[in-house]
Every structure is written in structure tokens, then in C-alpha cells.
Amino acid sequence: MNEKKSVSNAAVFALLFIISFIFIIPFLWTFLTSIKPDEEIYSAALTLLPKEFYIGHYTGIFTKLGNFLKYFSNSVIVSFWSVFLNVLLASTLGYSFSKFQYWGRDFFLGFVLLIITLPYVIYLIPIYIMQSRFDLIDTRLGLILPYTATNLPMSVFIMRGQFNGVPNEMMEAARIDGATHWQTFTRVMLPIVKPGIATVIIMTFITVWGEFTYARTLCTTARSQTLAVGITFLRDEAASWQYGTLTATIILSLIPVLIIFLSMQKYFIKGIMAGAVKG
Predict the structure, then answer these.
(1) Which residues, at least 6 apart from 242, have a Cβ–Cβ distance to it below 8 Å?
(2) Backbone angles phi, psi at 172, to 5 degrees
(3) Which residues contact 257 (CB under 8 A, 6 or more apart)?
(4) What is the number of other CB atoms lying within 10 angstroms of the CB of residue 159?
(5) Cα 136 from Cα 148, distance rounded (Å)
(6) Contact at 8 Å (CB) between 68 and 249?
(7) pTM
(8) What pLDDT digit, counting tens, does each position of 132-179 carry?
């Protein structure tokens, strides 16, 4: 029985390793291309590993593509505030839907679940009209607000599932000890639902960082443009894309996503499962 289990585990491990390797090949190829000199990239002889380590493509991004840092900083600012507002609102709403009884709670929860089923693109035209009236077109705030709104329904659903997994007795004990509702929420409940918070952070950050449609429509200049769209402008700025510069730009744009995911990955699956099963 143990031998069969060992063979089964080995087969599963081998299958997962092959699948993981397939997914990592494009990233690996992009990175290795970014550290090759142009002579190797355009050589007729195709090679995987570079013959020499070359960082000229990375330095060229900062010396030749003047708007790269602007696009990058815009993405960081927009992503940070979108994640912050989303976590704040999703935590409070999820806590409310899970632990309190009040008129209209089920209706509002059903409305949130309905929004999840709708593609976010359908909101683009109404958002554009509203932002043009409030003079928010081509501003970072004009991206932060819709990014927060479109990511909020799923985040609320995840956080509600997390709070559902916390016994009500813990909240009641804190109240008996003299804690206010806010103290109970911040000091007792939030530390317990860290997996859900990490899940919301990862999902929101990845979505906002790579979002193209809203960024391209609501922002038209480098003043507020994010890197996802700015990369296409950098191509025009460089007259044409050389593969070395292109791959180096892609690698730099992936670094924040990797940092966020790797730093919180141990909470990610736990938070997803809790939100799906207990929601």
C-alpha cells in the first residue's frame, strides 16, 4: 500500500514539475534574452544560455527611454492606492456581511455577487462619462477609483468567507472584555484573516498592474499613464523595439509582481480556499 502511494506521489510530483517547467519556459527565455548582446540575439545559431553576461539593455532603458521611470512610478502609485483602498473596504464590508444582521444585508450581498458575474469592460463607457464631468480624465485618481470599484466585489466575497471561518465567540469575548467594535475588528479579527488579506492584495495588485483597457482609455499622456500601456509608447519612443530592450523592459515590469506574490504565497491558496468554501 505504501509503495503504491509512493509511486502515486512520485507521478503527481513529476506531472506538476513538467507543467511548472512548461509555464516557466517563456519567463526563462525572456530573461536569458535580456542579458544577451545583440550579436547573440540575432545570430543564426540559436542558443539558450548567453555566452557573456550583458546588462546594456537594462541600462539603455534608463538612458534612452526617458519616460520609463514615469510610467513605472505611475503604476506603483496607482497599484498601491488601489490595493490599499480595496483591502480597507473589502475587510470592513466582509466583516459586516459576515458578523452583523441588519436590514438589506442579503440584498446587498446578492448585488455584490451579481456584479462578480459581469465583465468589468461594460462599466468603461459610464465611468468615462462620469470622469469627464468631474475632470478626472488623464489623472492617477481617475484610475485608482475604478480599479478599486471593479476589484471590490470579489474581494468582499473572499473576506466574507474568511470572517465566516472565525467563531462568533471570539468577537463576543472581546466585547465582554470592553473592546469597541473597531478594536474588535482591528485587534482581534484582522490578525486571524491574514490569508484572506494576502489573497486580496495579490489578486488586486496583479489585476491593476497589468490592466490595459481602462489605462489606455482613461489616460492619454505620460503624466498618468501606467507601464502596461506605456510599454507601447516606449516602442515609439525608441523608434522600434529591439528584442534585447523589449525583454529587459518586460523583466523589469514583472519584478514587482514577483515580489508581491513570493512574499505572500504561503497565504494565497489558504485564502482562496476559505473564500470559496466558507463564502
Answers:
(1) 38, 57
(2) -65, -40
(3) 205, 206, 209, 210
(4) 30
(5) 15
(6) yes
(7) 0.84
(8) 999 999 999 999 999 999 999 999 988 988 888 888 888 888 888 887
